[in-house]
Write a structure and sequence with these properties.
Number of domains: 3
Shape: globular
Strand order of the largest sheet: 3-8-4-5-6-7
CATH topology of the largest domain: SH3 type barrels
């Protein structure tokens, strides 16, 4: 079984590489994990020795089939724990990630499955990220689009906020911009500029930077 550090690298690599398990430079992996580039290179060699990644100099790192399966197990555990402490214990969505980082490596898969059952087999975590099932399969997300690509003056439901830090999540939460909220885009500045959002839940329009808007996934509401 992978160590705590190895699990963190595998999860980070899965998030970076996407569905097709693309090659990721060790520099990019290092930045994601928050370590030096030489440390990431050494870890890539360790993971390669276990058969969990392919590692080629000047090309980077890519998950193998077994590495992807382990990464998905880690993602599943993390997201179920986030959901449990959010829904059952009431931990705010901007704090769940830090709390789970302290817990996830000490929790058995059996306990995670029991938490999943107690929650009613949730499909998404508090941030809207899909939760892999026990076979490592992710729920379909075909209807989702990035907020910056959504049409103006169409009712939208916020589905997911991707990899945002606690301060950003707290700011969004205070303004009601959370998964399940319904919004529409009133105006969009050209060239990737800010968007102006309105909704019945907001007491006034909210301006979001283009960068922040690209971290939010939405879907159109069928009226």
């Amino acid at each position: 079984m992978p160590s705590e550090s190895e699990e963190n690298y595998l999860r980070a690599l899965w998030k970076l590489s996407g569905v097709k398990d693309q090659w990721i430079t060790t520099g990019k992996l290092a930045d994601r994990v928050g370590v030096s580039h030489p440390s990431a290179t050494r870890m890539a060699g360790r993971l390669g020795g276990h058969g969990w990644v392919e590692h080629e100099p000047y090309r980077g790192v890519r998950l193998t089939h077994s590495g992807r399966a382990l990464a998905l197990q880690t993602v599943r555990r993390h997201r179920i724990l986030e959901t449990y402490i959010s829904k059952i214990l009431g931990v705010p969505w901007d704090q769940v990630d830090a709390e789970v980082e302290r817990l996830e490596h000490a929790v058995s898969d059996d306990l995670v499955c029991r938490m999943e059952e107690a929650l009613g087999f949730p499909a998404r975590d508090p941030h809207g990220s899909p939760i892999p099932d026990r076979d490592g399969c992710l729920p379909a997300t075909a209807e989702e689009i990035i907020l910056t690509e959504a049409p103006i003056a169409v009712e939208l439901e916020i589905v997911r906020v991707i990899d945002s830090g606690p301060e950003v999540l707290q700011w969004l939460g205070e303004r009601g911009v959370t998964p399940g909220s319904r919004i529409s885009i009133e105006a969009r500045e050209p060239g990737g500029g800010p968007l102006l959002l309105i909704s019945k839940e907001l007491d006034r329009p909210i301006a979001l930077s283009g960068t922040l808007a690209r971290s939010i996934e939405v879907r159109s509401i069928d009226l």
